[in-house]
What we know:
The chain is of the alpha+beta class.
Amino acid sequence: MSAWLLELSFGPVQGFIAAARRSGDLWAGSFILSELVRAAATELLAQKAQLIYPVARRVEQEKLCENSNLSNILLARVDAPDEQAVRALAEAVKCAARKCLQDLASDARGKWEAAGVRLRDDFWRSQLDDAIEAYAAWALIPAAGQGDKSAYRVAYERLKQTLAARKNTRDFTPMFPLAEAGKGTGVPKCSFDGLRESVLPAGRTEFPPRFGLSRGEQLDALGCIKRIVGRKESFTALTRFAVDGWLQQLDEASRGALAAAHEPLVKEAIGLTTRANGNGGIYRSFSYDGGLLFPERFEIAGKESQGNADAEKELLALGKVLRPLWQKQKYGRPCPYAVLVVADGDRMGRFVDKAQSAEQHTRISKAVASFADRVPEVARASRGQCVFAGGEDLTVLLPLATVVDAAQALQKAFKEAMADVVAELVGDDEAARPTLRVGAAICHVLEPLGVIRQRAAAAEKFAKGEAGLEQQGNALGLKLHIRAGHEIGVRLRFGEGDSGGLAFLARWQQAYAKNQLPGRLAYDTRAIALRCRAIGAASAVAEGEFRRLVERARQSGGSEKICEPLPEHLFARRAALAGEDDGDTAGLMRLADELILARWLSAASEAQISALQGGQ
């Protein structure tokens, strides 16, 4: 028997995860890919392989356990007599993953057709046949090392080179084989990403509410599977995160009345809302998706329910509770924005390469798994929910108000989980230590989840910083995407204490929540920066103008001056930002962006958002 290293990579991530229109689609895609990897890893364990990544306990956890997400990479040590035996094992592992997808597909199709929806068989089969990309590579572990490299290290480096070569020589099969055969003419594309043909029956526009289809929406085979997996009550809709701050402002009686009015709307005969029972039960005071709390969604529901006497009756009852709350100045209409967070490790590739043995790689895997296991509880503590935590790569949904605290909690959890193995492999070498970067995209709830996911990924790259940056990574990249088309972003480093940007952002957010800062301050600050830039004024002139602005400013809705120590905090932060950007030598543009973002993060109602967009 010889010892071998075997690595497998599954995908595509875009098709399984990023292609989504709803939060349930995003969660379902992550779950499906994770379950394919679980099936593959289970086959490896059954064949007596030694799993290096991920650790075996994460593979063996219950399928629906929130801590059981798996990334798309498997690394194992196997004993085999020759290369043909390793090749056969790799094929068996791939087949296990494909069978898992076929089982999920069979279950989903059965539920669609039991509801009277006959799917297009030719497109269904074709799309499932090439849904999985599975690449494998293996390398023999030599009897002895080479130079200062261990035998394991030699095999590991060969394995990485071989897998990269295999991916670069992937099989380029026709993307639309049925279209080339003349069967795809006039067939609409999937609404998720527009890549594949819809498998829904031609001409049908109305579907049972349980599938969550909007009028005119089209789904490919994977989309249909996601709608079955993703309709589970264990996952929380994006709208529920958006309305969370607004709901917490309501008195208990109003919240209870809203919940009572929602309960009849959950019934399958009506199906205008869904439950939000999962995530540790933190939404039990209002355990519904919250979509009907938005006027636009409420009006659409009214139009869709015409002719359904029961639905019309229950919507009327909900309106009697909801409209008075919308009209109260204290509450208004809920804020329609939520946050999607994507995080990843910095320098993880170089850190993993420090391992010289399977045992060291396993210790890294255990540390990463320990961090991933903590992510759901960290998200829950911030009123959010983990979508995916396959390792240091994770996705979380959050309300506006808690994103800064959640990002810092994630960074702290990562640092603690990795501390021992980092000390073992890199010691005090700060430049080699892995850190966590967090990207957060603030988006409107009506944006497709695929678009929001892309924006969150862009925010994560923004958090990483520019190539060659001395302090690359270990930061929060926060990007606001206003539905009107504007974008504002700030990048703030972790671990800088009370003098860092995150601490100041938290101060601005708290001050806005308590109406201690005027809404116009951020926009007036930006106006000073633009005016001084236009006339080429010196930095000292801009600083003087800003000081006069702060001294004249009054608290929101009152005549009192801004309370100390806020003015000193504003001056200190401006000074810290000065000179960081050649086009903003006084630091006022970046300070204005921080203030605008802080006020958005403190908003709970649509009225507060409207005031922000008007610069009031």
